[in-house]
Each structure stands twice: as structure tokens, then as C-alpha cells.
Write a structure and sequence with these properties.
The complex is a heterodimer of chains A (about 475) and B (about 375). With about 475 residues, chain A is mainly alpha-helical. Chain A has one domain. Chain A has 16 helices and no strands. In chain B, helix 3 runs antiparallel to helix 4, helix 10 packs across helix 14 and helix 13 crosses helix 14. Chain B contains 15 helices and 4 strands. Chain B folds into 3 domains: about 170 residues, no CATH class; about 35 residues; about 120 residues, Cytochrome Bc1 Complex, Chain D, domain 2. The chains are: A mainly alpha (about 475), B alpha+beta (about 375). At the A-B interface, helix 2, helix 3, helix 6, helix 8 and helix 16 of A face helix 1, strand 2, helix 2, helix 3 and helix 4 of B.
């Protein structure tokens, strides 16, 4: 039972009182009118401009991927010894972006962080779109994408099976599970909201689509009981999953013997980096969403403040990881590891190492200041910086480690081609196109979940401290 | 009330009013009490007397099943059906199976939680429920809280139920008619759906069939065939003589193909058997002799093999004096080049195997013409 705030208000310092989750008067009805109205209105001009930009990027990317299919992956800069380059960098980058959504929807749910309710939907959607972007890369990386089904263990005429001791196969399972579970989580959360949209819908086509998608949800208390239980279970399962997925991705590197990859710190280091990059992307998108969709009363500055704090904490974790890498290189007295680490800060690609360190460690430190956490300028600067920095971190891990390994006669400088950049641009196009479409056809805020935490939403004798 | 009704809905505008009304409505014992709310109201399951959701147990069982399935699948493949040694681990070492076991556990558990909740426990999708076509549904999914008294029998008195709900503070009461007995999911509907799926499958299958039949080598698939490589026996403009396959450079010998018996049989007489006379060499020679020679020359190398009668030609009796006097090199030459009706065995036998056969033939000859000293050697 929550102590009555009125009695204790004199004793609690102002800084410790939890601020309201929404700004101004928000009722369940006004929430629906505000959030669920987007699909019912014509999109503004900015939306079309945005869509034109993202679609252009998408088309460029699809064209580049088509070119790669026709000519082969020789169109990329990958060459011995750097066999993994942009394709794997982008894969790790996008899988990482996805992690913020699951963290917000699952881990913060388990921690009963109720502020997550307003941003969980968007973050989950971004998870799914990011994983879609990520999955493209292994498919085109294998060179013959029409044989991609060989990745799966299925009985076949060749009487061959996959190798279950390969982390690459673990990846296949991890990423597929991650996508399925995220999609399930997202859709379950959407069902009651879609039911609301169904009952608001006026157009016949819209009504039919939402009716089918809502599966006949009718808000019965007996259904809510199972629903809540399912949501809790999914959150628990997704929590384990989100920690495992990027760990498995890191195994691709950590279980090899390449100097700079073969390190036990990789799984936690990758997970922290993934959450870091994902939160930066979520902050970037949320700022745009709250400004252009007039959602300032629901996605408040407090949300952004908390998100920025998470980014700061992750930045410090990343700093620790980088220092640990240096320490390991020094303390191991392994000349190969030492050389590999020195390459990061002073080799041919030293600039990439310093871009990584600056963007991921130095710039986010500005978020120690409350004013910076409340300023669009600084938070966008940090978010863009982190996105760039995290991309370069994967560049450093993959390209810098590979281009000089044990055999100096095999060393070579890697240079990406325009096709490499085109494919990368294309995935940004795919991601933001999906984000824009999502913002127009589905509820961008989990109205059902926000309704449940509005003042007076729960019976007064029951308290609302242990709610969703 | 002669008309049978399904249920009576009482609409409330706050969760507090709903929670206060539920015990009163339940006390009337007119029918089953259900509530419809825009979001999950906490404590409502106790107020309505709902049983605990069995979902947790289902998920646990399916999660464990997922782990067992993944382990069994990987173990059977990696240790039994297709054992490959990777990194020096034994084929059945289970540690590497853990990541996939974890993923499959989560996958099974998640789908049980999600689909079990929707399909098994909540019996969705169900589009024919009367509440969905009620006037109150717009409020239910928005900001109204509804208590429903649902008929348990034909004797349900909807007027009395409405009275109870009004007395409990409902701001509106709606009587729902008995559900239309031809709900959305009739057998006709199911048949049409299955028919639609079947038709779609047939159309997709035919499309795939004709696509691959008419356009078997589309650009990306074809590209792999157009590599700058030479097929055997094909011409090539790269070389002056236009042949793709080239003769070895004059005077060179490929590794492992030393020309040890190229000349005549007489010239080969000087070749010396390079193999030591060890039990392994004799075992190899015996094996090769059994496989390649015995069928004509016979098990004792006396020219009486199982094929001799059918074959017509007369294989050499290697026990004859002529062959007892042969040096090793001449027997070797015959194996490599063939003699009379005997074909060359060079394509099937390695250098070592040929010489091992020579040794074995020597042993057979000595065994068939054994002297007293040989007996002493044998019994020593």
C-alpha cells in the first residue's frame, strides 16, 4: 500500500517526489482522441516530405542490393583479410538499435517503471524495424541469398546438417527468436488499442482491417486477467532474450581467435553498447514525434530526461569496457593483442577509434548537466553522436581487428565502395519509412497502458503502486 | 419477458463505481457477472471471483519442453546422425548446445504465453460476441466501465437484472439480445476460408512452377554459371593451340607420379622394391591381391582363379619357373602396364600398393615352393 502522499509531503524532499507521468489534464477519453486520431486524419505536408526522403534512401538501397545480387559481393570493398566489413558492421549495428525497445518494454516493465508506458510502443516498433534492417545483412552477406534457407537445420537430400557448435548458427536462432518474440510482444500490446481504433473507426475498410486485427477483443475482465499474466510472462522472457541476443552476436567474434575479438568481456560489452545505441535512436525519434505529433503532454521532458540518464550510464559502461580492452591488451602481455589495441588508437584507422571514443565516451558526458538533459540541442547532438560512434565502434571491432592479424604478409587496408554506403543508406531508408508508416496507421502510444496509470485510473481503495 | 436475452450491461463512469457495484450485482445471483473495461483494473479478479490464470504453468511446461526439444534435436544431429568433430570436442559434448536451447526455450514459452492466452484461454478470435455489437462497446474500449449480468439459463429475467444494475449505480443500462445463432465462424465460413487458403496455395504453387520452368536461369541465379573458368574438354582462346586442357610441360613430372616403369619390361628388371618387408606391407599386399589379382590368378597365384573358366584367356601361372625367376621389377612392370590380356592396374593402385603386391606374390611363390629352412623360419 502506498503511503498517502499528503501526509508525507512535508518530509520528502522535492527531488524525491515522483513527478506526474503526464502534463496537464489527460483523461482516458482525451487520450484516445489525441492518440488514436492520427490514422483518421490526413497526414501533414511534413510527413509526405519525410516519406519522400526516406523512400529515396530506400530505393537507392534496394538498387544497390539488386546490383550486388546481379554482380556478386565483389561489388563491396570486402577483400582478404577483411572478409567481414560493412555487411556485418551494419548487422551488428541494427540488431543493437533494436535492443532499446525490448529493454523499455520488458526490463523497465519488470522494474515497474511506469513512465515506460508512454514510450514503449514506439520503442517496440523501432525494435522490429531495426531487426528487419539487421536481417537483410546476413542474407546478402552469404552472397547467394536464394540459398539462404541453407542456414536452417532441415532434413534435406544432401543429407547435411548445420554445425551446432558454430556461433553463426546460434545467431540464426537468436535473431529469429528475437524477431518472433518482439513481434509477438508488440502485437499483444497492440490488440486492446486496435480494439479502441476499431470502435472509433468510421470508414468501412478501416473498420474491417481493425476488426480483424483486434481479433474480437472486448475488454472482458476475465480476458484482461490472462492478458496481464501473458504480458508479465512475455516481459520476463524477453528480458532474458534481450540480454542473450547481443551476447550471441558477440560470440561470433569472441569465440574466434582473432586478436581484438577473443575476449570474455565481449557479451556484456556488446549488450551495453546495444542498449546505448538503441536509446540514442529512441531519443532522436521521440523528440521528432513529440514535436510533430503534438504529444508533448504524454511524452514529457521527464521521459527524455530519464532516457538521457540511461544513455549517460551506458556511456560510462562503454568507457569502462574500452578501458578494460586496453587493460587486457597490456596485462595479457600478448603482443598480438597489444598490436591490435594500438591499431585502434594509432593505426591507419586510428581516426575511427578516436571517433568512437569521442562520440561514445566524451560527448555524452555533457548529460551530467540537468540543463543539457532538458535541451533539444544537446540531446540530439549526443544521440546523433552516439549513433555515429556506435557504428564506428563496430567498424573498429571488425575492420581494424581483421585488417592486421597474425600474418603480416596478409595485411591489407580495407576501403568500402559506394555500393557499401548505398546499402547502409538504404537500411536507414527502410527503417525510417517503416517508422513513418507506423506513425500513421497504428497507435503510437500504448493508450491502454497509459490509461491504466492516469490519476484515478485504478480503484482508490486499492492503490496504484503495483500496477503495470 | 418473453424474449430471451443474452445479458444486461450496466455502464459506470469510474473504476470506483465499478468496483463498488460488482459485489452488489454478484449478491443478486441473477446470472454470471462479468466486467468489461478499457484497461486492466487491479483487484477486479478477486471482486469477480475469477480463478487464477493457469498461463504460468502452461508456459513453464512448454518452456521445459522447448529446452528438451532443442537439446534432443541438436544432440541427435551432432552426435548421432551427422557427427562432425569441431574444435576437437567430442561429438556429443553438450556445452555448445546451450545458446540454442535457451533461444528455443524462450521461443516455445513466448508463443505459449501469447497464443495460449489468445486462443486457448480467451478463445479469440471471436467476432460474434454480442458485446461487440452493443452500443456500449465504444465506451468499453474508451473510458467506460461495464458490469454485465449474463444469462445462465432460459429463466433469465433481464428486467430484474436491469433493476439490480441501476440500483448499483449504473448510469446506463443496455439489454443485449440473444446472440445471433449464425456467428461469424460458421462451418460455411470455415469452409470458405479453407477454400481460399487452398486456392491461394494452388495459385502460388502454379506460379512458382511456371516461373521456374519458363525462367530457370534469371540473372542472379545464372551469374554463378558465367564464371571465367574452363570446363573439361572445352576450347579456350587463352592458349595458342586453342585447347583448354594443356599437356604437362615437356620433361616435368607431377608430384607422386614418378615414371618408374615407362620403358620395356626388360628395362624395368633393374627396379628395386623400395618397401621394407613388414607385416603391414604384406597385409596391404594381401588386401590388394585379393581385390585385384585373385579373381584371375587365383588365391595361390597359380593361374587358377574363379574367372579363368569363364574368361577363356589363360592368366599367367605365377608359380611357374619363368615367374619364379622374374626380378621384382618385371612383376611391377606388368602391374603398371598390363601384359597380354591383363589390363594396366596403374589407375587403381598407388605406387606403394603395387610394390606391396609384388612382395605378396613373392611370399606366395616361396610358400608354394617351401624348403626345409623356410619351415624353421616359420616355426621359430
Amino acid at each position: 500500500m502506498k503511503p498517502d502522499a499528503a501526509i508525507l509531503s512535508g518530509d520528502i524532499p522535492e527531488a524525491l517526489i515522483e513527478p506526474a507521468l503526464t502534463v496537464g489534464v489527460v483523461t482516458p477519453g482525451s487520450l484516445d482522441d489525441q492518440v488514436l486520431a492520427f490514422p483518421e486524419t490526413r497526414p501533414p505536408k511534413q510527413w509526405y516530405i519525410g516519406l519522400a526522403v526516406t523512400l529515396t534512401a530506400l530505393i537507392i538501397g534496394v538498387g544497390c542490393i539488386g546490383y550486388v545480387f546481379v554482380t556478386g559481393i565483389g561489388a563491396w570493398g570486402n577483400t582478404s583479410p577483411v572478409f567481414w566489413a560493412f555487411d556485418i558492421i551494419n548487422f551488428v549495428f541494427w540488431v543493437g538499435i533494436g535492443h532499446a525497445g525490448t529493454l523499455i518494454s520488458a526490463i523497465l516493465f519488470l522494474f515497474r517503471k511506469r513512465w515506460r508506458n508512454a514510450i514503449a510502443r514506439f520503442a517496440e516498433a523501432m525494435t522490429i524495424f531495426a531487426v528487419i534492417c539487421a536481417v537483410i545483412f546476413p542474407l546478402i552477406h552469404i552472397g547467394r541469398p536464394w540459398l539462404a534457407y541453407w542456414l536452417f537445420p532441415y532434413p534435406n537430400q544432401r543429407a547435411l546438417w548445420t554445425n551446432f557448435r558454430s556461433p553463426l548458427l546460434w545467431d540464426v536462432f537468436a535473431v529469429n527468436t528475437y524477431f518472433s518474440v518482439s513481434a509477438m510482444f508488440w502485437y499483444l500490446g497492440l490488440i486492446p488499442d486496435i480494439a479502441s481504433m476499431r470502435d472509433r473507426a468510421t470508414g468501412k475498410v478501416r473498420k474491417v482491417i481493425y476488426t480483424v486485427l483486434a481479433m474480437g477483443w472486448r475488454g472482458a475482465a476475465s480476458h484482461w486477467q490472462h492478458y496481464e499474466k501473458a504480458y508479465l510472462l512475455l516481459a520476463g522472457l524477453a528480458t532474458g532474450l534481450v540480454l542473450s541476443v547481443h551476447s550471441v552476436v558477440s560470440f561470433d567474434f569472441a569465440t574466434s581467435v582473432v586478436p581484438g575479438w577473443h575476449m570474455t568481456i565481449f557479451p556484456p560489452y556488446f549488450v551495453a553498447g546495444a542498449i546505448f545505441a538503441g536509446f540514442a535512436m529512441v531519443v532522436m525519434v521521440l523528440v521528432v514525434v513529440r514535436e510533430t505529433m503534438q504529444l508533448k503532454n504524454l511524452i514529457t521532458m521527464r521521459h527524455l530526461d530519464v532516457m538521457n540518464k540511461v544513455i549517460l550510464a551506458m556511456s560510462c559502461l562503454m568507457g569502462y569496457s574500452y578501458m578494460m580492452e586496453g587493460f587486457t591488451a597490456w596485462y595479457s602481455m600478448n603482443e598480438y593483442l597489444h598490436h591490435s589495441f594500438m591499431n585502434i588508437i594509432s593505426g591507419t584507422y586510428g581516426w575511427a577509434g578516436w571517433v568512437t571514443i569521442s562520440c561514445n565516451i566524451f560527448i555524452p558526458q555533457i548529460l551530467w548537466f540537468k540543463k543539457a538533459r532538458a535541451s533539444y540541442f544537446w540531446m540530439i547532438l549526443v544521440a546523433v553522436g552516439v549513433t555515429i560512434g556506435m557504428w564506428f565502434e563496430r567498424f573498429v571491432i571488425i575492420v581494424v581487428s581483421l585488417h592486421q592479424d597474425y600474418l603480416p604478409s596478409a595485411w591489407r587496408i580495407y576501403k568500402p565502395t559506394m555500393i557499401d554506403f548505398g546499402v547502409l543508406l538504404g537500411t536507414f531508408g527502410i527503417f525510417f519509412t517503416l517508422v513513418l508508416l507506423f506513425a500513421r496507421v497504428l497507435p503510437v502510444i500504448a493508450t491502454t497502458e497509459v490509461k491504466a496509470i492516469l490519476p484515478g485510473a485504478q480503484p482508490s481503495h486499492h492503490g496504484d503502486d503495483h500496477h503495470v | 419477458m418473453s424474449e430471451t436475452s443474452y445479458s444486461v450491461l450496466g455502464v459506470f463512469d469510474t473504476p470506483d463505481a465499478l468496483m463498488q457495484a460488482i459485489p452488489k450485482v454478484r449478491a443478486s445471483k441473477l446470472g454470471t457477472v462479468e466486467a468489461y473495461t478499457p484497461y486492466a483494473i487491479h483487484g477486479i479478479e478477486e471482486a469477480l471471483g475469477l480463478r487464477r490464470s493457469p498461463l504460468g504453468g502452461m508456459v513453464l511446461v512448454m518452456g521445459i519442453l522447448g529446452a528438451i526439444t532443442a537439446f534432443g534435436f541438436q544432440y541427435w544431429i551432432s552426435a548421432i546422425d551427422y557427427p562432425i568433430i569441431t574444435g576437437g570436442k567430442s561429438a556429443g559434448s553438450w556445452e555448445a548446445f546451450i545458446p540454442i536451447m535457451f533461444e528455443v526455450t524462450v521461443l516455445f514459452a513466448t508463443f505459449t504465453a501469447g497464443l495460449g492466452m489468445l486462443f486457448l484461454l480467451n478463445k479469440l478470435p471471436f467476432f460474434g460476441h454480442p458485446v461487440l455489437s452493443s452500443k456500449s462497446i465504444k465506451g468499453i474500449t474508451r473510458d467506460r466501465y461495464v458490469v454485465a449480468l449474463e444469462a445462465e439459463s432460459e429463466a433469465f429475467d433481464s428486467a430484474a437484472a436491469a433493476q439490480v444494475l441501476r440500483a448499483a449505480g449504473a448510469i446506463e443500462v443496455e439489454v443485449l439480445p440473444a446472440p445471433d445463432r449464425s456467428p461469424f465462424l460458421t462451418s460455411d465460413y470455415i469452409l470458405r476460408t479453407l477454400g481460399g487458403i487452398f486456392t491461394a496455395c494452388v495459385v502460388a504453387g502454379l506460379a512458382m512452377y511456371f516461373a521456374t520452368k519458363w525462367f530457370p536461369v534469371l540473372a542472379p541465379m545464372k551469374y554463378i554459371q558465367d564464371q571465367p573458368r574452363l570446363d573439361a574438354q572445352k576450347a579456350s582462346s587463352f592458349f595458342k593451340d586453342g585447347h583448354g586442357m594443356q599437356q604437362p610441360v615437356a620433361g616435368t613430372v607431377a608430384r607422386g607420379y614418378l615414371p618408374t616403369a615407362t620403358g620395356t619390361q626388360e628395362e624395368a628388371a633393374s627396379l628395386v622394391n623400395p618397401l621394407p618387408r613388414t607385416p603391414e606391407v604384406f597385409a596391404l599386399g594381401k588386401k590388394v591381391f585379393t581385390n585385384r589379382c585373385e579373381v584371375c590368378h587365383g588365391a595361390l597365384a597359380n593361374g587358377v582363379g574363379s574367372l579363368t573358366a569363364a574368361y577363356g584367356a589363360k592368366p599367367a601361372n605365377l608359380q611357374a619357373q619363368q615367374f619364379l625367376d622374374y626380378p621384382d621389377g618385371k612383376i611391377y612392370w606388368a602391374i603398371v602396364n598390363g601384359k597380354n590380356a591383363m589390363p594396366s592396374h596403374a589407375p587403381y593402385l598407388s605406387e606403394r600398393e603395387r610394390w606391396a603386391v609384388v612382395d605378396y606374390v613373392r611370399a606366395l611363390q616361396r610358400a608354394q615352393n617351401a624348403k626345409d629352412e623356410d619351415l624353421k623360419v616359420a616355426t621359430r
